[in-house]
Amino acid sequence: MADKQDAPTAAVVVGPDGMVSGWSEGGRLLLGWTAEDTVGRPVTDLLVDPPPPGFPEGYGAGPDPTGFILLRHRDGSTVDAVVTAHPLLGPDERTLGHVVTIQRWGRRPVIADRAFEQSPFALGAYDPELRFLWINASSGRVIAHSEEQVLGKKYREVLPEFDRTLFPERDDKPYADALAEVARTGEPTRLITVFRPRGSDYANAWATSIWPVRDAKGRVRAIANWGFDMSAEYWARQRLLILNKASGGIGRTLDVIGTAQELAMTPVPGFVDLVSVDLFDEVLRGEEPPSGSPFGPGETIRLSRAAEHSTKVDADQAPGVTTPVTHAPGSVAARCMAAGRSTVELAAEPGQGGEWAFGPGLAADPAHWPPGNPVIDESIAADGLTGRITVPLRARGALLGVVAFSRVDRPEAFTADDLILAEELTAKAAVAIDNARRYSRERTTALTLQRTLLPQGLPNQEAVEVASRYLPGGTGTEVGGDWFDVIPLSGARVALVVGDVVGHGLHASASMGRLRTAVRTLADVDLPPDELLTHLDDLVLHLASDLQPTGHFQPTGESGATCLYTVYDPVSRHLTLASAGHPLPLVISQDGTRTPVPVHPGPPLGIGGLPFEATELELPEGSLLALYTDGLVESRERDVDQRTAELQRALNHSTASLETLCDTVMDAMLPPRRTDDAALLLVRTLALDPHHVADWDVEPDTAQVPRARKLAVDQVDAWGLEEAAFVTELVVSELVTNAIRYGEPPIRLRLIRDTSLICEVSDASNTTPHLRRARAFDEGGRGLLLVAQLTHGWGTRHTTNGKTIWCTQPLPQSERH
Predict the structure, then answer these.
(1) pLDDT (tens digit, 9 = 90+) per residue, 243-259?
(2) Other beta carbons less than 10 A from residue 649's beta carbon
(3) Percent of the chain with pLDDT over 70
C-alpha cells in the first residue's frame, strides 16, 4: 500500500455561503495553498473552470461516489482531482456546510507513477500555454534541469535552443513549434529531432511523439510528449545516405578532376566541413601512377590539389583548376601514403576523466578503432580544425594521391564508424578516378592516332578552296572514326572524301586509318566514285573477317563504315559523287540557293553485293560544298531534316573566309556536351581559266605526229613556258605515237596549265600501257620509260569511252597562276 505522502488527501470545510472555513495539511501538499491562503475565500477560487452543477452539495454522491474536477495549483499549474462532498448536519438536521475531500485523480496505484517517473524514456506534460506541469527524471537529464526548476515555467523560456533547428539545411521543424502546433490543432504528431544536449559535444537524434491530453468533455487540458534516443540508428542511416549519395554522385563522368570534385562535394556538410583531394601529376595527365615507392625517406612529396570543397562556398577551389601542393617528410599525409593506412587526428580527447565519450550513435571505445588511431594532435586546432581523417587514395594496388576529411568549428569528435565511412568514400572514388585516368589515357592515345591519320595539311591545288574541322566527342565519350581527305587527281581534278567508321576508341581510329589509306590507293588508280566504293566495300568485308576471334584472341570491335566520295573537275566544272550510306553534301550556289543532289545513298560499307550509284552535276563557279559526318547534324531534340536545314542557314555564303565559316558552323551546330565526333569539310569550287586549256583532235595516222608536236610547242610558247617546250615535244611525240599504234580512234591531245603543266592523250581503247625495260638491240619499248624519266609523274585513267594517259611537268613558282 502507498503511504499518505505518496497520495496526499486534502480536507476542506465549506460553509453554506460557499466560503472556505477549514483547510488541512493535505491541501497544502496537494495544491500548494496554506490555510492562511484559503480560509475566508470562496471555494470557487480554487477551480479552473466554473463549478459544476450541485457543487459542493452532494457532489460525488450517488451510486458513483467519484466526481472529477480541475483545480488550480498555487504555482499556476492545474491538478486533476477526485472530489467527494459530505454534508455537516446540525442538531436540527440542518446543513451547516460540507466537508470536501480532494485526491489527485488517478485510478492507478502510486507505483505506476513511480514507473513513469523512472522510465528511461523522456516523458513530460505541459499546459496549453506550454508551461511545464511534470517531467520525469530522464527528461530532466536531457534538458539538464530538475522538475522543481521548470514547473510553471514556459517551455521556450527554459529551452530557447529548441526554438531553432540544428540543421537548417534539412528544413527540420523546431521542436517548440511542434509542441505549439499540437496545442493549437489538437492533432498528435511524430518527428525526429536532432539537437545537442547541454554539456554535450555530440548531436543526438530523438524519436518523439507529441499528443494532446483531453478531459472528459474532450477539451485539451495538457500536451504530453515522449521520446527516446535513437542516435545509433539515426547516424548509421545518415552514413548510409552519404554512401548512397556517393554511389550516384561519384564517377558520373570519365574525368579525373571532375571525379575528384565529386568526392570533395559528397560528404559536405553532412559528414565533414572540408575535403581536399591531392593527386599525382601523372594521374592528372592520364599516365600510369608512380610505381613502387613513389618517394624516398625524407623526400618532400609534390602533388596537385585536384579538388577542394568546404561549407564556405567562397573558399572552394574553382572546378577544373589544379594547384601544386607539397607534403613535408614526416607529415601525416606523407606517413599515410607511405604506410598505406589512414590516420584520425583529434584536436582534444573527447569525454571527461580519461573516458571516451559516446559519439553519435556509437560508444567510441578504443576497441573499435584500428591500431594507432585516433591520434590526439592539438596542433590542428591552430588551423581551426577539431578533427581530420587522412586516407591514402589507392586503386588496384597503385597509389594515386591522398584525401583529407576535416571538421571545422564543430565539437563532434570523429568515431570509428566515421573512419570506416571516410575509407569507403575514398575507395569508391579511387576506382572511379583510376577508371577516368585509364579512359583519359586511351582517349588521348586514340585521339593522337586519329589526328595523326587525318591530313595534317590540305594540298595546294587550283581546283577548289578548302577548309576543314574535326572535333572529337566531349569528355566522357570515346574518340570515333570520323575522317576526311582532299586528294589531287590527274587532269587538275581533286577528290573530296568524308567518312565515318562504326564504333569508337582505338579500333575505330585504326580502322579509319586503314580506310583512308585504301581510298588514297584506289584514288591513285583513278577509279570512278561508284567503282571505288565497290572496291572499298570489299576491303571492309575483309576487315570484318580479320576481326573475328581466333584462338585466345578477343574480337577487336565492330566493323562497317560510311563514305562519301566525290570528284571535281575544274575544267568542266563537273562534280561526280557516290555515297555508301553517308549523308549527301550540301551544294549552295553563290546566290544562296541550295542545289539538290539527285542521288540516293547506297548501303554502308561492309554489307557487300549491293551496287552504288554515281551521279554527275555541273556546278556554277564559286559554289559552296559542305561535306560532313552525322555527328554534326544528329540531335535528340530535332530530326535530321531540321538539323540539316539549320546547317544550311549556318552556311552564310557571304562569309569570305572558309576558315571563319568553319568556326561559325561548328559553334552553331555542336552543343557544349557532344556525344559523338564531328567532321566538316567546306569546299568553294573554282573554274580553270579556258585560256589555260588547249585540246586538239588527232587523226589516227603516224604522219600526224609532227603536227601534234608543233601544236603543243606553239601552245607552250604562247603560255610563256619556253623552258618546258623541249620535254613537252618529246612526251607528246611518244604518247601520240603510242595512241595511234596501239589505241583506237578517236584520239585527242590536251594540255592544261595548272600548278603544273599537264599533257593528256586520250583514245577509245581500254588497254592499259605498261612500263617495261627494253633490251639493248630492241627498236621499241622505250617510249613510256622516256616519259617517266622526263616528267614529274605519269599514269592512266579509264573513262566511259576508253582511257587517258597523262603526265605532268613541274612549273617554277613564278610561272604558276
Answers:
(1) 888 888 888 888 899 99
(2) 9
(3) 82
Q: How far is CA 242 from the centre of its chain?
A: 18
Instruction: Scan for cell 595511234, then name that residue.
Output: 740
Query: Which grid cell sits at 772?
Result: 617495261
Residues 59-78 pLDDT 10s: 665 544 456 788 888 888 88
Sorted by sequence, the CB contacts under 8 Å of residue 512 that are 6+ apart come out as 450, 453, 481, 482, 483, 499, 501, 561
CA-CA distance, 452 to 696, in Å (whole number)?
Answer: 44
Q: How far apart are CA 797 and CA 768, in angstroms?
A: 9
Of 42, 38, 34, residue with least CA distance to 18: 42
Contact 391, 423 (CB under 8 A): yes
pTM to 2 decimal places = 0.57
Q: Please list the residues that pair with 344 across neighbouring strands.
A: 389
- Beta bridge partners of residue 681, listed in sequence order: 468, 627
**Amino acid making up residue 611:** P
Residue 4, all three cell numbers = 499518505
Q: Which residues contact 258 (CB under 8 A, 6 or more apart)?
A: 252, 319, 320, 436, 475
532's enclosing H/E stretch is helix 529-546
At residue 405, φ and ψ (nearest 5 deg) are: -110, 120
Per 3-state DSSP, what percentage of the chain is helix, strand, and coil (rounded to 5)?
Answer: 30, 30, 40
Quick check: helix, strand or coil at residue 567?
A: strand
What cell does 752 get?
592544261
Strand order in the sheet with 747-753: 693-698, 747-753, 756-763, 802-810, 793-799
**The pLDDT of residue 34:** 92
CA–CA separation, 79 vs 47, rounded Å?
10
Q: Tell me how far apart the alpha carbons of residues 475 and 535 are, in angstroms, rounded to a whole number.
A: 36
Euclidean distance between CA atoms 655 and 586, whole angstroms: 16
Contacts for 594 with CB less than 8 Å, ≥ 6 apart: 586, 587, 588, 648
> Backbone phi, then psi, for 795, in 5-degree steps?
180, 180
**Residue with cell string 554534326:** 632
Report d(CA 715, CA 722) in Å as an integer. Answer: 10
Which tens digits make up the pLDDT trace of 498-522?
998 876 666 777 777 788 888 888 8
pLDDT in tens, 83-115: 888 888 888 878 888 888 888 766 555 566 778
Q: Enumerate residues 6+ apart whose C-beta is below 8 A from 115.
A: none
C-alpha cell of residue 637: 531534340
Q: How many residues are recorded in the chain? A: 817
Helices 231-249 & 416-453 angle (0-180, nearest 10): 0
Residues 29, 44: Cα–Cα separation, whole Å:
19
- Residue from 510, 677, 529 nearest 617 by CA: 529
